[in-house]
């Protein structure tokens, strides 16, 4: 970087970053005209460590629904998904039956894909099994925290996401391929994939450093 360049000017030249109207450089993917929720999601959620089982279950379900779609689409529909799936309380979702599947297939607020709907319900039962075995979903997922990764934005999956995906599938979970699982890990703070120079990268690093993974 030339000495005369400001950080914002340097960020503007970096294809992984975008300088917003507030002067902050952020991961370029979160700057979507006409959809401020994307920036809020990036600034307030993405990459910050999560230990709440409901949020973890919600996210892995929504990543499954995202398969073949964009996260922007799913994020816009998230309130409707939460209403349709009982707030993603997997204790309740595990009790959903065929009538609920048919109800969800008629819900225009969500992604009406039978396979994904049935997978979310199926995975709720697998989540209950995992909690019975591990104590919590958080205790299980945080075994796969990636503390070594330092070069964000250059991969769609990792050795850890492959290992987690393999174990989940062995346990009977559906729609949990390694790319889907890696996106889950990025969002829930198991890896810090904010781009170097992103205003949130250091905040996420500090939050992860202060976080005590459940065991």
From TrEMBL:
InterPro entries: Adenine_glyco (IPR005019), DNA-3mA_glycosylase (IPR052891), DNA_glycosylase (IPR011257)
Organism annotation: Roseateles aquae
Keywords: Glycosidase, Hydrolase
EC number, as in UniProt: 3.2.2.20
Highest taxon in the source lineage: Bacteria
SUPFAM superfamilies hit by this protein: DNA-glycosylase
A Pfam family this chain is assigned to: Adenine_glyco
PANTHER family: DNA-3-METHYLADENINE GLYCOSYLASE 1, DNA-3-METHYLADENINE GLYCOSYLASE I
Molecular function, one GO term: DNA-3-methyladenine glycosylase activity
Protein name (record): DNA-3-methyladenine glycosylase I
Statement: the UniProt record of this protein carries the keyword Hydrolase: yes
